[in-house]
């Protein structure tokens, strides 16, 4: 027996309707916000993520599924959707399309992390990316789309936390202040923090080591270092969220685990799933497109983890529509009536009715038992008498009532119930 790889999950027939519900809801939200679907390959050149996501991130340093293909090229299974979306935007010349360009995706992602509840090595994201606008209205619209998704899924108890991590101008000042603060503590901090001190001190705030966390708790806060433009942008985003009735709290500790962010960053955090409580995260990334070789194009987006959405929905009792059950099971008693059952089922299906027939050569009694197990709403019994009369004996499985319905009238009857 070969088992499933660690950190991955099967979706079983009895569970897939939940996934379909979340995916369909995401598509519905995308439609409301007029976002168009994009699809990018599951693997990209490794360089895209190194440059896009950033050399100092855990994602790039520790978590990528990177390998050489048979042609000796280094490729990586996508750890997230934004870098691929940015590449798609540049490579296909989409900067010449009407701006803003509003896109969404549903995609598997791969990160070599230590698996735990809500943290997998293969997981799935619904993400949106809006290219071409630097305006705070765009940040607010993207956040409001994430908020709408959670609301439509019936998720409660999620807190929207927002922050601004400034632009390269204020970041330079802030990095200086961080270095001054961290320098005397370096000997008590982990190796990774010591490396990050030189390369990207902001990333030190993201360290999960207990000792480092104690030190970073008193570090200077970015909000005190924002330049006037960034401050103004952040204030406008807040006002626009309030205008839309989207509740938020400011959390100056959100720095996000990916290097491309500028200005607004945000997370929706649930208290119901423990350590991996972030169901959705995103922000503005005004320099990514130019860093990847495109014309300077501001952008903002987010991604939500579908597995985490499903966990939160189950933990908080959100309504998940039941899986689809057959409307009718057609049970034939002998060869001729079985043939009739097949013929009727084909006609019903052609008219959009979900119908089942026996595929196991079962006795009529066993067919009824099976129809009950799979939750068929009606069972149509067909035997010699029914064939002679041109009708089925139709039983409503929940009320137990039976009635005779003509073969020719069955479809219309079922379309009315
Ligand atoms: P991220 O915060 O790395 O952001 O991931 C977004 C979401 O993906 C998380 O909030 C979480 O729900 C889910 N997720 C991440 N890692 C795992 C994992 N190992 N297992 C299960 N779920 C996971 C991004 O990926 C950015 N690309 C978001 C973005 C889009 N920013 C701008 N545009």
Could you explain the architecture of this structure?
It is a single chain. This protein has 417 residues and is α+β, with helices and mostly antiparallel strands. It has helices at residues 16-32, 46-52, 58-62, 82-91, 136-152, 168-182, 191-199, 210-216, 228-243, 288-291, 306-315, 335-350, 364-373, 384-389, 410-416; strands at residues 36-37, 43-45, 66-68, 74-77, 101-110, 122-131, 158-164, 249-250, 262-270, 278-284, 299-305, 328-332, 355-357, 378-382, 391-396, 402-406. The strands form three sheets. Strands 1-5-6-11-10-9-7-8 form an eight-stranded mixed beta sheet, sandwiched between helices. Strands 13-12-14-15-16 form a five-stranded mixed beta sheet, sandwiched between helices. Strand 15 (391-396) and strand 16 form a beta hairpin. Helix 1 runs antiparallel to helix 5 and helix 5 (136-152) packs parallel to helix 9 (228-243). The longest helix is centred in the first third of the chain and has 17 residues, at 16-32. The radius of gyration is 28 Å and the shape is elongated. The mean pLDDT is 96. Histidyl-adenosine monophosphate binds next to strand 6, strand 10, strand 11 and helix 11.
> Could you name the ranges where pLDDT drops below 50 across 5 or more consecutive residues?
none
β-strand number: 16
Give the CA-based shape.
elongated
Bound molecules: histidyl-adenosine monophosphate
Arrangement of strands in the largest sheet:
1-5-6-11-10-9-7-8
What is the overall number of helices?
15
Radius of gyration over all CA atoms, rounded: 28 Å
Integer average pLDDT = 96
Q: Output the structural class.
A: alpha+beta
């Amino acid at each position: 027996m070969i088992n499933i790889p660690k950190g991955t999950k099967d979706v079983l027939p009895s569970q897939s309707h939940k996934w379909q519900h979340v995916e369909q809801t995401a598509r519905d939200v995308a439609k409301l916000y007029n976002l168009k679907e994009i699809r990018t390959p599951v693997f990209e050149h490794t360089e895209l993520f190194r440059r896009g996501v950033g050399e100092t991130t855990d994602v790039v340093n520790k978590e990528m599924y990177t390998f050489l293909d048979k042609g000796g090229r280094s490729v990586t299974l996508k750890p997230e959707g934004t870098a691929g979306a940015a590449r798609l935007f540049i490579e296909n010349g989409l900067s010449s399309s009407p701006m803003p360009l509003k896109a969404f995706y549903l995609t598997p992602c791969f990160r070599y992390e230590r698996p735990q509840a809500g943290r997998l090595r293969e997981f799935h994201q619904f993400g949106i990316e809006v290219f071409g606008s630097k305006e705070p209205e765009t940040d607010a619209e993207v956040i409001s789309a994430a908020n709408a998704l959670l609301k439509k899924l019936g998720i409660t108890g999620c807190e929207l936390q927002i922050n601004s991590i400034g632009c390269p101008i204020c970041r330079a000042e802030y990095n200086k202040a961080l270095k001054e603060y961290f320098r005397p503590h370096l000997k008590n901090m982990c190796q990774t923090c010591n490396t990050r001190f030189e390369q990207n001190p902001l990333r030190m705030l993201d360290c999960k080591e207990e000792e480092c966390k104690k030190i970073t708790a008193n570090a200077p806060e970015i909000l005190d270092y924002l330049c006037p433009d960034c401050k103004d942008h952040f204030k406008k985003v807040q006002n626009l969220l309030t205008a839309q009735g989207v509740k938020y709290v400011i959390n100056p500790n959100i720095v996000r685990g990916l290097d491309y962010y500028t200005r607004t960053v945000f997370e929706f955090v649930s208290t119901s799933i423990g350590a991996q409580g972030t169901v959705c995260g995103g922000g503005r990334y005004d320099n990514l497109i130019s860093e990847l070789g495109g014309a300077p194009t501001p952008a903002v987006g987010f991604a939500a983890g579908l597995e985490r959405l499903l966990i939160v929905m189950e933990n908080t009792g959100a309504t998940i529509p039941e899986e689809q059950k057959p409307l009718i099971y057609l049970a034939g008693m002998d060869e001729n009536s079985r043939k009739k059952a097949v013929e009727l089922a084909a006609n019903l299906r052609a008219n959009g009715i979900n119908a089942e027939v026996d595929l196991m050569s079962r006795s009529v009694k066993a067919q009824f038992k099976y129809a009950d197990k799979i939750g068929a709403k009606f069972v149509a019994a067909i035997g010699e008498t029914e064939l002679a009369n041109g009708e089925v004996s139709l039983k409503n499985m929940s009320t137990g009532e039976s009635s005779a319905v003509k073969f020719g009238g069955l479809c219309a009857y079922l379309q009315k119930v």
